[in-house]
Amino acid sequence: MIGKPASPTNSHSTMSGCTDYHMTRRRMIGVFGASMLGMPISRLLAETNTTRRGTADHVILFWNSGGMSHLDTWDPKPGRKVQGEFAPIKTSVDGMEISEIFPQLAKQMHEAALLRSIAGINGDHGRAQYELQTGFNQTPNIVHPGLGSIVVHEMDPLGDLPAFVSISGQAARSGYLGQRCEAYFVGRPGEKDPYLSFPEKIHHARGMKRLEILAEMNARHVADTGCPEMKATEVALRDAVKLMESPALKAFEIDDEKPETIARYGDNEFGRGALLARRLVEKGVRFVQVNRGGFDNHGQIFDAMRAHGAVMDPAIASLISDLRASGKLSRTLVIVLSEFGRTPRINNNGGRDHHAKCFSALMAGGGLKGGSIVGASDPDGMVPAERPIQVPDLHATVCHALGIDLEREVITPQGRPMRLVRKEAQPIKELFPA
Q1: pLDDT number for residue 155
Q2: pLDDT band for position 380 (50/70/90)?
């Protein structure tokens, strides 16, 4: 079902909102230095609001939890002992091959780029997922915001729908960016949200009056106690009421689509999730995360990956094709990502184990150069052989595509300046047209 935004669970989640402006230290120095030189006030204001126009406006992230095998998807090794049961197939790009489990997606690869040399450092699920989704390593004293929260914090909302939606699973938390940057959770795509309608026999006017009374009670409690958790609840309630009243809410009702469209994506949770992602982007949602688990295949990996391919291939291929047809693909970045890959060695249970040293990802649209391959693994897919890509570089690449300042700092509720992207991170420039 579609659910309410999650409420914060830690003291770092109490910032006032996603659109608050915080200068970086470099900009602050530039502004005050300019004022000392007598720069006009109009020029000073312009200095604080300089932004780079990105190549993308939206992101759809397919998050594959568990560690998806790079060798059985984007980086096949034909003729090697590590190949496994899948043969490589040709794609719409000369010289680019992917696994046979993606026959429809193979026809769309002229719109996509493959990253074949991601060099991870975390082989533990929890730590790897944290780094892949936030760009930072896990620490005991701070919760970093996930990529979706960063995007909605830095970019203006478009329309009434939540700017960040997570489908079929929870996304990374917003950390110190606060309640407004949390993901709106959709449990089963296509089902109506019971929290966005009044109970039976409660008429609309009566329900709205009750919400007004609740808001007044919450406001008094916040004034008396200063409780940040109650303030977050107040924000969630206000956003829910706004959404309840919006015609844009119909974007969640995918049964409005033609039956043949649903069948093309796949009439299953993942296919419906991909279709919902397309509809949400078309209505202005900035960041959509579609979650799929079941990739921790220590045994019987080839049966598992055949099943994954049968579900994922038509859904992602249809999404890319439909976004291109509507003109949305050029401004929508599609990412297929997991926390690490799997070992080249096939174990005694017919599976592959955790492998963070080298793995792959797919990106499409969003102004990136389609039909490109960045980096390469060694002959067995064990380590990067060319152009190692560090995990934080993925975040820098997404932010660069969206026009987000890579040097941006925000101030946490504890008064601590924090960068949204790690200092050493660099965009993968090969993905962008010269």
Answers
A1: 96
A2: very high
CA 247 distance to own-chain centroid: 25
- In this structure, how many other beta carbons lie within 10 angstroms of the beta carbon of residue 132? 26
CA angle 377, 67, 328 (to 5 degrees): 85
pLDDT in tens, 76-93: 999 999 999 999 999 999
* Tokens found for residue 406: 């890579």
Q: Is the Cα dihedral 302, 306, 307, 309 positive or negative?
A: positive
Neighbours of 25 (CB within 10 A): 10
Q: Are 76 and 98 in contact (CB under 8 A)?
A: yes
pTM comes to 0.82
pLDDT band of 392, cuts 50, 70, 90: very high
Q: Report the distance separating Cα 260 and Cα 237, nearest Å.
A: 37
Cβ atoms within 10 Å of 28's Cβ, excluding its own? 13
- Please state, in angstroms and rounded to a whole number, the distance separating the CA atoms of residues 433 and 7: 40
- Secondary structure of the chain in HEC code, one letter for each residue: CECCCCCCCCCCCCCCCCCCCCCCHHHHHHHHHHHHCCCCHHHHHHHHCCCCCCCCCEEEEEEECCCCCCCCCCCCCCCCCCCCCCCEEECCCCCCEEECCCHHHHCCHHHEEEEEEEECCCCCHHHHHHHHHHCCCCECCECCCCHHHHHHHHCCCCCCCCCEEEECCCCCCCHHHCHHHCCEEECCCCCCCHHHCCCCCCCHHHHHHHHHHHHHHHHHHHHHHCCHHHHHHHHHHHHHHHHHCCHHHHHHCHHHCCHHHHHHHCCCHHHHHHHHHHHHHHCCCCEEEEEECCCCCCECHHHHHHHHHHHHHHHHHHHHHHHHHHCCHHHEEEEEEECCEECCCCCCCECCCEECCCEEEEEEECCCCCCEEECEECCCCCCEEECCEEHHHHHHHHHHHHCCCCCCEEECCCCCEEECCCCCCCCCHHHCCC
Measured CA distances, 70 to 29, 41, 204, 251, 295 (Å):
45, 54, 52, 34, 11
Rounded Cα gap, residues 160 and 82, in angstroms: 49
> Burial of 120 by CB count in 10 Å (0-12 exposed, 13-18 middle, 19+ buried)?
buried
Handedness of CA 345, 364, 424, 183 (dihedral sign): negative
What is the C-alpha to C-alpha distance for residues 14 and 1, in angstroms, rounded to an integer? 27
